[in-house]
Specification:
CATH class of the largest domain: Alpha Beta
Number of helices: 10
Number of strands: 15
Largest sheet: 6 strands, mixed
CATH architecture of the largest domain: 2-Layer Sandwich
CATH superfamily of the largest domain: Nonribosomal peptide synthetase, condensation domain
Helix content: 25-40%
Number of domains: 2
Order of helices and strands: EHEHEEEHEEHHEHHEEHHEEEEEH
Radius of gyration: 22 Å
CATH topology of the largest domain: Chloramphenicol Acetyltransferase
Structural class: alpha+beta
Length: 438
């Protein structure tokens, strides 16, 4: 099977030709699958999901995803060397490209040995994939399917036949009619005018303000934190009370924390990337069982004053994103993403944003699959030298919010990254405490 790349896929591929554009999922398990079990489960999943066999080919000036003739995914097994070993592997993975022209766009590392808590039957599975073959919903679904198959094998059962899925067209094939063909051109004209005006105003407002430098040799580093079930539940409850979303609240917190820790205390204008899942808005809507990148990068500009109120900032972001969604910019940003990435990467003169946050909500992964217990699940996406200063992937697992943060070593060290994370936690704890005490 073969098809042309879509807009966001071209943007990801072009970025990957300059800097690795990987996503990394980490499953920390007890009684996890062996190498042999993983090989059998992966083999069955390769039959079901064509994009697990994907490579990129160029023919007559066009770029295609081709799902034929690729090698088996690489699975290596390592013995754990200390408590930070899995993090060291992740940092290597986010900075090491996959060869998407030979494929497959996937590799795995199984880390075995006693955990930091002394469990002898602990293991970590680190799954790295090129972002153009999977988005967050399809990655969550794939992990769920993988663990279900592994559980059956560990229980001595045969694997059932699985429906073989077709290679789906690119996301824009499912856009509403007004965002396809000539209709899309008419929508793009006012979109570019708004973007141009925003760019001019932004440049004027940040004159004399702190500018994030660009260092060509920068490497990604990671940091993680997990909120308690009590704090996680209160954040969800208070977000509903304030008629906003957890996503908007978290965007406010990351912007405010970076402002507090990295700026000089004066008001400024900051930019943030938010990521829109397009699957519910496609016609027809697309089930997460179909792999692919069906998302849009939504950048917004917001004025930050000294000591901003968290809930007021969250509601301001809510109004900005709601207005942008109503204009259909979730579709338009997807369409123009390859051209914008080419422009940014050609000049490499400025950073695209201050922060970025991807909130995936509750993920379709259970904490127990037969004998397999999933203790933690982490996810990271590569950043690059003109990318945001501080990025976070956030999800709800086992009723707790997991924050997986990626920063560049040119911007800050581990202690500074930890201080920004601590500031995010403090901002959110203070936001819910104020409401509880009212």
């Amino acid at each position: 099977m073969k098809r042309k790349l879509g807009g966001i896929e071209k943007a990801l591929l072009y970025t990957d030709s300059h800097f690795p554009m990987n996503a990394v999922v980490v499953l920390r398990m007890v009684n996890g699958p062996s190498e042999a079990v993983l090989h059998r489960a992966l083999s069955r999943l390769r039959e079901r999901h064509p994009l697990l066999n994907a490579r990129v080919v160029r023919e007559r000036g066009n770029i295609y995803i081709d799902t034929q003739g690729t090698a088996l995914p690489l699975l290596k097994v390592l013995s754990r060397q200390g408590t930070r070993h899995w993090k060291e592997i992740v940092e290597e993975e986010v900075n090491t490209p996959l060869d998407v022209h030979t494929g497959p766009a996937l590799r795995l590392t199984l880390l075995t040995g006693s955990s930091e808590t002394g469990e002898a039957n602990a293991s970590d599975l680190i799954i790295t994939f090129m972002h153009l073959i999977m988005d967050a919903p399809s990655a969550g679904n794939l992990v769920h399917e993988l663990l279900e198959l592994c559980s059956l094998l560990l229980n001595g059962q045969d694997l059932p036949p699985l429906e073989v899925l077709s290679l789906m067209p690119a996301a824009e094939s499912f856009f509403p009619a007004k965002y396809r063909g000539a209709g899309a051109v008419l929508q793009l004209i006012p979109f570019f005018l708004r973007q141009g005006a925003d760019e001019i105003l932004f440049k004027l407002r940040v004159l004399g303000k702190r500018k994030i430098p660009v260092f060509p040799s920068a490497k990604g580093k990671i940091f993680s934190m997990v909120f308690s079930k009590e704090l996680s539940n209160e954040l969800r409850k208070q977000s509903r009370k304030h008629l906003t979303t957890v996503n908007n609240l978290f965007n406010a917190a990351i912007l405010k924390a970076v402002y507090n820790r990295r700026h000089d205390g004066r008001g400024t204008v900051m930019r943030n990337f938010n990521f829109a899942d397009l699957r519910p808005y496609l016609v027809p809507s697309l089930d997460p069982c179909f792999m692919g990148s069906n998302f849009s990068m939504m950048r917004f500009t917001v004025k930050i004053k000294a000591n901003p109120d968290t809930w007021e900032l969250a509601n301001r972001i809510s109004r900005i994103t709601y207005k942008s969604f109503n204009r259909g910019e979730k579709f338009l940003n997807n369409l123009v993403s390859p051209y914008l990435m080419r422009m940014f990467l050609r000049f490499k003169s400025s950073r695209m944003a201050d922060t970025a946050l991807s909130y995936t909500g509750s993920i379709p992964v259970n904490d127990q699959y037969g004998a397999i217990k999933v203790r933690d699940i982490h996810a990271f996406v590569s950043n690059f030298v003109i990318g945001p200063e501080y990025t976070a992937q956030v999800r709800l697992f086992d009723k707790r919010f997991y924050w997986d943060i990626l920063y560049l070593d040119c911007d800050m060290d581990y202690q500074e990254a930890a201080s920004v994370a601590d500031e995010i936690r403090r901002i959110l704890e203070d936001a819910v405490k104020e409401q509880v005490h009212e």
